[in-house]
Amino acid sequence: MSGRLFIVSAPSGVGKTTIIQSVLPRWPKLRYSVSCTTRKPRAGEVSGRDYHFLSREAFLEGIQKGRFLEWAEVHGEYYGTDGNVVESWTQAGHDVLFDIDVQGARQVLSCHPTATTVFILPPSMASLEARLSGRGTESEAQLGKRLAAAAAEMAQAPWYDYLIVNDDLAEAVADFESILRAVRCRREYQVPQLRTLLTLPSPQQSK
After folding, report:
1. Mean pLDDT per 10-residue run, the chain (207 residues)?
2. Of 38, 51, 79, 170, which has the fewest Cβ atoms less than 10 A away?
3. Which CATH class is domain 5-187?
4. Contacts of 169 (CB under 8 A, 6+ apart)
């Protein structure tokens, strides 16, 4: 049985990465899709773990050959998902988790409309502002841009399948795992198992 696709999106500062990192160790059949990018690695980033760092030439060649399941140019740099890797995982029966923005989510859904989409929300805009300002890495103007971008992203949340409010991390992780379990139990994914059971001889027939 082919694996399933799970797409997770959220504004910066909501805690999406923390939730994903909490879930992955407990789901051995779930593979995390590491994005490709043309930007240079930042301090502490490791190729293959944080991103697959590609040259601009290699990325553009990948676009021409249809390598990327989704891609976008952001601030002069390219970002995308290697569709060949995703296909190899799903064909092997592994589920795949995408950490991508709204634009990327729409691109993946255009090819895989049965993918499950999850959007993570902050409990309030005030709490999101507090989280972002608490980092101490942005000016007031940059913070304002972040909040405006977050509001624009959250305006797209209603078309996602599931919405999780990250007010309490443990509860948000539990909510996300509940979605994973529910999707794995959907009828269309359990039909092969059902067919196997229905074709087995009954106790009377086996005598």
Report:
1. 91 94 95 96 91 96 96 92 96 95 95 96 93 78 88 96 97 98 87 82 59
2. 170
3. alpha beta
4. 15, 18, 19, 22
